[in-house]
Specification:
11 helices, single chain, Znf_RING/FYVE/PHD, six-stranded antiparallel sheet, Jelly Rolls, Znf_RING_CS, alpha+beta, zinc, four-stranded antiparallel sheet
Length: 544
């Protein structure tokens, strides 16, 4: 529902309706209230942004004609909006694409009626008319075909230089403000535009009838609106409208400031997210480079191991082979001697050679039996490599999401009381578990844990929970708020202040505060994904 003062102000600026004009009443001059000779009061035009004075329709690129205000706040000529409604199933703003009429509304009414139902920006309409007035070649209202140089802001008459001097000398117009057309701003021309009676268009309006939302002259106020209950002087109605507009301006300015502040906060968060992504990407690159180095070292180690194993078998086989080759050469030589003796030697020599060769052959090792070790295969790393690949693949593809505040989260628990005056500098190893404190965190006391060794370069998560491990509520042991750390030597810290705000520390610096959703009491909670060595540091009560 529109504010009544806003509606009144719109009606004040409405153009005259020719059909609403009635004939001038006869013999009623005596009823016309005595003229008060009050000059219309116009507020001083305040500084506006350039876009506030832009009188060009963004669709037709001409000065606005009956500018209508869309729900999104953008302005368009009424005819331009009619064309948009007529051409689109779902009419949308040509600038921001926000819908302003539903298809159902479009089916019930014609485009012209829908466009008429939108509020008119009468101020922009006045600015556009003033811009049109200054855009055309002005001619003096009195002289024929003489170019006008000035305009009277009260009479709205264009005047040449001669008529300007005469206009200033006339007693009835000597107090009027006459300005040069070359210097008058559009907004000044619009602000000083007189408001005429809706019926008697040649008379300035002096009253405003709220019952009919129309500005009228004194004669109409007596004749046509005598029975109306809300007929006030125009100055009072304008003052009321000004007060309403001032109030709206303050409210909108406050909302705008809050929105800009919120947008600024979001920009900071976006910057933080971008920076976090860069840091996280660097961590991924560092981890992958480290993994590549480990893989290369592992590759060299396995290759060396494979080479040593195969070299050992190769040397053993070569030794056996060399021995057999030597024996084969001996057998071949004696075979040649025997064959020659059998074919060539004379009988006495053959007998002697036969005896000699028999003794020699009997002395040779004629058994050909390979050692069992010859059949042994080298120790290969293929199966071992497959197992390593399977384990690494499982480790890398396993979801390692940060802890969430879900009741389904149920990790193994290793309850301890890590912090206390008697447990300072306790060193412990943990792997795949969640460590909690027996006692709730004391206000304004800094609890710290140092990450000494991180075998897999994974994250250690630290934060608080509303339950301790000793309560037995394993499903309730979840993070209410948390941070993460992975660098060896880092010191993570937690502190609850007197306002029950949770402060996160890293290496002695406050890195963030959680103000909502912190349970009371709350317990320290640390999650270890892989094997890590940590040291519980003494309590720091300097915040007391």
């Amino acid at each position: 529902m529109e504010d009544s003062s806003i509606t009144d102000l719109k009606e004040v600026a409405k153009p005259c309706d020719p059909e609403a004009q009635d004939p001038e009443p006869q013999n009623l001059e005596s009823q016309d209230p005595e003229p008060q000779n009050i000059e219309p009061q116009h507020p001083e035009p305040q500084d506006l942004e350039p876009q506030d004075l832009e009188t060009t329709c963004p669709k037709c690129h001409s000065n606005f004609v009956t500018p209508k205000i869309l729900p999104c706040g953008h302005l368009f000529c009424k005819d331009c909006i009619v064309s948009v409604i007529d051409s689109q199933m779902q009419p949308c703003c040509p600038r921001c694409n926000n819908p302003f009429f539903s298809p159902a509304e479009k089916e019930k009414s014609s485009p012209v009626i829908l466009a008429e139902s939108l509020p008119t920006d009468f101020v922009m309409e006045a600015l556009a008319r003033s811009a049109d007035l200054l855009a055309h070649e002005p001619l003096c209202r009195v002289c024929d075909d003489v170019r006008a140089e000035s305009i009277c802001l009260q009479c709205r008459d264009m005047l040449c230089a001669v008529c300007t001097n005469a206009h200033k000398k006339l007693s009835m117009s000597s107090s009027h403000e006459v300005v040069s057309l070359s210097t008058v701003p559009v907004k000044s021309l619009a602000v000083t535009q007189p408001l005429m009676c809706r019926v008697h268009t040649e008379k300035q309006a002096d009253f405003f009838c709220s019952d009919h939302s129309v500005a009228v002259c004194g004669l109409c106020s007596v004749k046509k609106h005598r029975e109306c209950s809300q007929v006030r002087e125009l100055g009072e109605e304008v003052e009321s409208a000004d007060n309403a507009l001032n109030g709206m301006t303050q409210v909108l300015a406050q909302v705008e400031e809050k929105l800009q502040h919120a947008i600024g906060q979001l920009n900071e968060r976006l910057h933080e997210v971008d920076f976090s992504e860069q840091e996280d990407t660097k961590s991924v690159d560092d981890a992958c480079e480290y993994l590549l180095k480990l893989v290369k070292d592992f590759q060299k180690k396995l290759k060396d191991k494979s080479h040593d194993s195969h070299e050992k078998v190769r040397k053993s086989l070569s030794d056996v082979k060399n021995g057999l080759v030597k024996r084969s050469e001996e057998v071949t030589s004696h075979k040649s001697i025997v064959r020659r003796a059998r074919e060539v030697a004379v009988l006495p020599a053959k007998i002697e050679v036969s005896k000699t060769l028999t003794e020699r052959i009997n002395g040779l090792d004629l058994k050909v039996v390979l050692d069992r070790d010859v059949g042994k295969d080298p120790v290969t790393t293929a199966k071992f490599c497959e197992e390593v690949v399977t384990k690494v693949k499982k480790e890398l593809t396993e979801e390692d999401d940060p802890p969430r505040t879900s009741r389904d989260h149920n990790p193994p628990i290793s309850p301890i009381s890590p912090w206390g005056p008697w447990r300072g500098h306790d060193v412990a190893y943990f792997e795949g578990c969640v460590v909690t404190s027996y006692e709730p965190l004391q206000p304004n006391t800094l609890y710290q844990i140092r990450l000494d060794e991180n075998s897999k370069r994974s994250h250690m998560y630290y934060g608080v929970s509303g339950n301790d491990s000793a309560s037995g509520e394993r499903k309730g042991l979840v993070f209410a708020a948390w941070r993460q750390v992975s660098t060896e030597g880092s010191v993570a810290g937690l502190m609850i202040d007197s306002l029950n705000h949770l402060h996160f520390y890293l290496d002695g610096e406050d890195i963030g505060t959680e103000t909502k959703g912190i349970p009371r009491p709350c317990y320290a909670l640390v999650k270890f994904k892989h094997q890590m060595k940590v040291t519980w540091l003494p309590l720091d009560r300097k915040f007391d």
